[in-house]
Design a protein that fits this description.
Blueprint (H helix, E strand, L loop, with lengths): L10 H6 L2 E2 L5 H10 L3 E4 L3 H16 L7 E5 L4 H7 L6 E6 L5 E6 L2 E6 L4 H12 L5 E4 L17 H9 L8 H14 L5 E5 L6 H18 L5 H8 L4 E2 L3 E4 L7 H9 L8 E2 L5 E2 L2 E4 L4 E5 L15 E3 L1 H15 L1 H13 L5 H4 L3 H13 L13 H12 L9 H4 L7 H16 L7 H12 L18 H7 L16 H4 L2 H4 L9 H11 L5 H11 L1
Parallel strand pairs: 1-5, 2-3, 2-7, 3-6, 4-13, 7-8, 8-9, 14-15
Antiparallel strand pairs: 4-5, 10-14, 11-12
Length: about 525
Amino acid sequence: MELTIKGLQDREAFEAAGIITPAYDIEKCSENAVRNPRWAHFGIGNIFRIFLGGIADKLIEEGDMEEGITCLETFDFDVVDKIYKPFDNLVLAVTLHTDGRRTKRVLGSLSEAVKLDGNEKGKTRLKEIFVSKSLQMVSFTITEKGYELRNAENIVFPFVLADYEAGPDGKLNSAMSIVASGLWNRYKEGKTPLALVSMDNVSQNGKKLRESVLEVINEWNKRGFVQDDFVAWVSDESNISFPWSMIDKITPRPSDEVAADLEKEGIANMKPVVTGKRTYIAPFVNAEGPQYLVIEDSFPNGRPSLEKAGVYMTDRETVNASERMKVTVCLNPIHSALGPYGVLLGIERFSDVMKDPDLLELANIVGPKEGMPVVIDPKIISPEAFMKELMEDRFVNPYLPDTNQRLCTDISQMLAVRFGVTTKAYMEKEGTAAGLKGVPLAVAGWLRYLLEIDDNGQRYELAPDPANEELIKQLESVKYGDPTSVSDQLFPILSNENYFGVDLYKAGLGDKVEEIFTEMIDGPGSVRRTLQKYIYN
């Protein structure tokens, strides 16, 4: 069997392998999307393919949409060439249940994959998409770094500065500039309203997207590329809205084991690939079953009936509370706290980390014990039930191949949300965060992870992170096995509000992080000993 439009003609073979296939006309949906795009998306990796692709698939199956999603890529073009095109944009969605069952479904809802790599073909197609009056929403899963225009020192990245100088019609590099260019074309060609919906794990993600897009547009305005009226048009959310959202579905890198099993079942060419930009991707996507998507219902040009596919459509306050519940208390802080320790202690999978008594206790400290007292109840989802599901079902799923290495990817971009918010909540509540255990242990573990030496003294490779080079340089004089080598190297990091959203010394945590980190570099076994000392004392 082949995962292609032609291959799907042999439906009986797919059904015999337990794979559900689309009942709708995939090619017609693609043609409809090309002619009249309705939903476009930037960042076409794994979570987009299985979660948002699955939402669109359900809506198409039930007759609530006639078009697939238009897929736009600004970063890793190998994804289009190696995964989208060879498989006719199809996705084999594999849900990994906690009892070992696998649900397999082919999704035909991704209609067109466009590389926005500066070539004229992509640029022309982007303009056609953005000027289409049928376009109602553009969504994003580009990770935190996709919205950033400056580095940790608040200096504009050179590639972004080049975009400012090039203007909306020039050759652009950043996703934010490309989006701003699309809006410029939409403004000139009829001013049809549009919703831009960030679905990334970024606190107040709609606000972040709006600020970044408007910053690009204001820089172009200063240089005379665009008019004041255009700035005002984008600034008015009755024209261009930036709904906030909360998304949740644990989607690990594709598993070699799942790939091998699929090929044994007769599906050809399932092996995962690692692109030149270190994206781990495959023709299939493996993920857990539970999923949550909460979106602010602000769509000035209408929208698909997302609620019919299980999306919570609500107001901004409820979205913010839902996002804070997940990203700052329940799920993401536990991932970011335990992931680096998993790497340091030689534990590959996150589900196995949850079997480690010390790390399980750290998870309980970060989430239930210290996070839950400052959580905001979103009402539509119970924080207690959400946390219980995580601790007893989702985190411990042994069939979910989520690695601790993956959880360390881009971690520097997430600290302010995952630990800074709780830190500030305790500062507001108690005047200081000095009583916290979880945050200093998590931050110290992350810094120790940056030394690239595990608790047995063996070296490993860091996960990709835009701040790796800068952080490694800052810590280069710290010597493993020599606690006396620690002096003032941590101060510029721990006091940097761009990393943590707060100066950790002013929060009462900086000295404690230094103390823990220093003890953790004292040779083999020091990570485990220090972890136990500070968890249980």
